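Technical note accompanying the year-one report. For the benefit of new consortium partners, we illustrate the data format agreed upon in the data management plan: each record pairs a sequence with a structure-token string. No post-processing was applied to the example shown here.
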Amino acid sequence: MTTREARTELKQLRTLRNRISDRKRRIEELRCSIQNARISRYGANGGAKDEYKLERAIDTLTEIESKLLEEIPQLELLRSEIADKIDRVPYPYGRYLTERYIFGKSFEDIAKMAEFCRYAYGGLRSVEIRAVQKYAQLEC
């Protein structure tokens, strides 16, 4: 596996996790919208311009929830596969990959961690490059 392929594989995990968290946030927004809707104001007697707004919100919520339920098992499978490979990467590179891609920590948060303080911010970039290279060298 090339370094570029390894980076792409690791980024897949982060992308999928971000998509799931975005959908969870959207679900919460829709639930609040539905909960706060004043049902008595909708319909022919209420003078509402869009009498089907609530129904569309419920349909959208149902659709997003079903997509979320499909993606969560994909995330778990991908996470377990990548975590197994990362466990074989030597320290501190494996630890860096775990924090960055499995736990989703930001680069700045990792730089503040006690183990990575000696690498400082600039040196941590080289740790990332070497970590991805070591990940790429693993045999599947």
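Partners are asked to follow this layout when depositing records. Helices lie at 3-36, 53-86, 93-102, 107-112, 120-137.
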